[in-house]
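Q: What does the assembly look like in three dimensions?
Context provided by user:
Components: two
Sequences:
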Amino acid sequence: MKKLILVFLALGTFGVAAETTQTVNIYSFRQSFLIEPILEKFTAETGIQTKVVFAKKGLIERLKREGKYSPADVVLTSDFNKLLQLKDEGLTSEIVSEEINKNVPAHFRDDQGQWIALTKRIRNIYASKTRVNAPQVLTYESLAAPQFKGKVCTRSGKHPYNLGLIASMIAHKGEAEAETWLQGVKANLARKPQGNDRAQVKAIKEGLCDVSLGNSYYYGKMLENAEQKPWADAVNIVYPNQNDRGSHVNVSGAVITKYAPNKSNALKLLTFLSSEKAQQTYASVNMEYPVNPRVKPAAIVLSWGEFKEDTLPLTKVAEYREAALKLVDKVKFDL
Amino acid sequence: MNELKPTDDIKKVDSVGVSPPSLRIRLLKLAHLLPSFKHVKIISFLLALVMALPLITLLFEALSSSGDSFAHIRETVLTDYVINTALLMLSVGTLVLLIGIPLAWLIANCDFWGKRFFNWALVLPLAMPAYLVAYTYTDLLDYAGPIQITLRDWFGWTSVNDYWFFDIRSLSGAAVMLSLVLYPYVYLMVRSSFLEQNATLTQAARVLGKTPFKCFMQVSLPLARNAIVASCALVMMESMADFATVNYFAVSTLTTAVYDTWLGHYDLASAAKLSSIMVMGIFVLLFLEQLQKGKQKSSNDAKVSQQSLTYKLTQKQTVLAVSFCSLILFVAFLVPVFVLLQYAVHYFEQSWSTQVFEFAFNSAGIAFITALLALLLSLVLNYAYRVKPNKVQAFSLKAASSGYAIPGTVMAIGVLVPLTFLDIQINDLTVWLGFSAPGLLLSGSIVAIIFAHLVRFIAIANKTLESSYEKISPSLDMVAKTMGTNGVNLLKKVHIPLVRKSAMVAALLIFVESMKELPAALLLQPFDFQTLPTYVYQYASDEQLELAALGAILIVLVGLIPLLILNRSIDTSSIDSNKIDHSKVIQNRVDGK
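A: Here is the predicted structure of the complete assembly.
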């Protein structure tokens, strides 16, 4: 029994975050190989150590349950809806910084200062180079058109990236029309929704389908990867709806938590993340579009061309997230 | 089973009873010195409560609010999910029996070339996490995988419409993948049951003119029924709780629904409601298992004298047996390992990092502590049920096993909620006392992960020990008691020596399972702390498994060590347990040898 108590005591000390003054604790929905290079630069510049929990699911619940003793200072998200959820659940605190306001344009910040966006990503259509003519005129609507019968590939309709797109469809066209559209896309699917965005491009390369949905940066990531380059080479990256409302944009972002024990360090981190240096890394390492207007996307990203963004505010889109999710179930998109 | 019979045990132990009085006096004195272990019933009840805490939390959450999205799910997709889940469980259950029982019988009751090798090798797939097997086979068998590409090249097919190929990303694909890694449960449990059977029964049947096949169907199989049903139930529970594999294969099951309601609709109450349905399903399974057990009481009577049954296979039969064993080993273990090794070599420079060994150490540490704690707690629970087999203790045992039904992520919530609550109380108290807040001691440390694993896997220990306890004749306890061996002594000197082997088996199984477990660690990890599965998942979920192949291989390697020990121990125990002279054990123990 004594041994058991000792074991427990050992456990109690092992793994508990040490409370030194110069740290910032992060809950990250974003993957470690994207974030770590940037955090290393932050530590080198400021001397502030970073501690991170990486998880794709459940971090908001954890933060909520931990309440006022939560060690987390900053939450990094890969999706816009999570930023809003954090705000709605009252888990954020106001970000007050002139510098951040200079780095991040107003429409990429919460009007009450509860969150900031850090990078933009476009929901692109990938189209087979050989089998799809005139890809530049493609629209999200065309994915439901008869010409693509049995030719569409996508990941799960419930993935945040697709949910965002469906929500924007509802915001623009209304629920009834969005439902008809989603049903049309489902009827055009070459296979049940599965895998991630890269897997769909691979399927186009193999001839399983002709068009797929995927975020912009995957194109660059695939071109960099020797194994995946042939996949990317088989497709054109298309910015949809250029002749009407523009392409759907999602953002990654960050909040400072309500009970952040190291608030000033958290603010330093967010300032750094929106600064030119970090935004440059976001652009070059992960091929995302920086929100900081003084930083240009990576050369390779620029080579994909200019495009028109959907300007409907993301807060407006987010209002239809729940409706979008219900729609996915209703048309049994994933089944 | 529970009635007293004048068996050999008693007769032999009687001779201890008439041993010199000095010994008896010494024993009685000793017994008085030791703690009486009076409170074991209360302790076990409290332990059961703690183990059931996540489930209680879920039930509480389920009732806490109306859960609007539950109605939405019910109206739209719930039926499909329930059907998928049921189909998955049934097909995995059937497949593991079709694979596991023939293997068990071949190894236990036949003699053929290569048997010694297959005897241990067939356990190896247990070290493979199902999701890893799924990833590797998807890479191989997908439309864009090497096999289909080669076929298209050979036959000049150009599109998916030109030919039919097994769709790996489907319900049947998921069922096959899960069966490949879960059949060892059936193999292990049924094999030891076959080994324990007395050959004289089959010999009698043969004398009466039954063919070997009929003997197998009418004698061996019915006698192994408990083991078959128990192992099959375990496997079905595992497949019900699986998330990683079905999610990767885009098969929507009840676990999918739980995720959707919680993370999509932000509706924990509905997620908890759905989990409660799943837990109810598990209780039905356990109840059915209990029901069939009740009918069968006298299997132990067969153990009058022990002789093992061995068929010497002819050349043709040997070829068949070896082919079958090889096929299973090849498909379930060698192919995935080969694919991973190939990745690891090919991407060595990009993926090499010494961090992997740190993660391996983390995983092994958690698995070790989990196994140890599970064993200790399960022993207390089973002992309490043994000395007081009333409804409360029976319920305690059941409640403490309820965690097996809960999918990992839901378990993580069930652990997170009470632990954060406790943490907040602790912090409030220390702050109130004027000290600085100590931080999240429970939910922010590996205590949370270990607790989640413990609750999830203690059922394995409970089940194994329970069936092991059932084999110990109650007369042994009575004899021991007449000699003043009570409480801790009864446990230490009589029960533990008799259940030691199966306890070890349980501990090793829990170690292996805990090594592979992903979702709890994913959600509950402390800062800067990763386990091998979370490390591998991070890459695999991004279709870049090759970059984490090294970690994946380590999961398998670390899991292999206990498996090899496990297999040896079952092997010897199956022979030993037949030879164990219970009375001798008692005599030695009371003599203090």
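Follow-up: Confidence is low (pLDDT under 50) at residues 8-20 of chain A.
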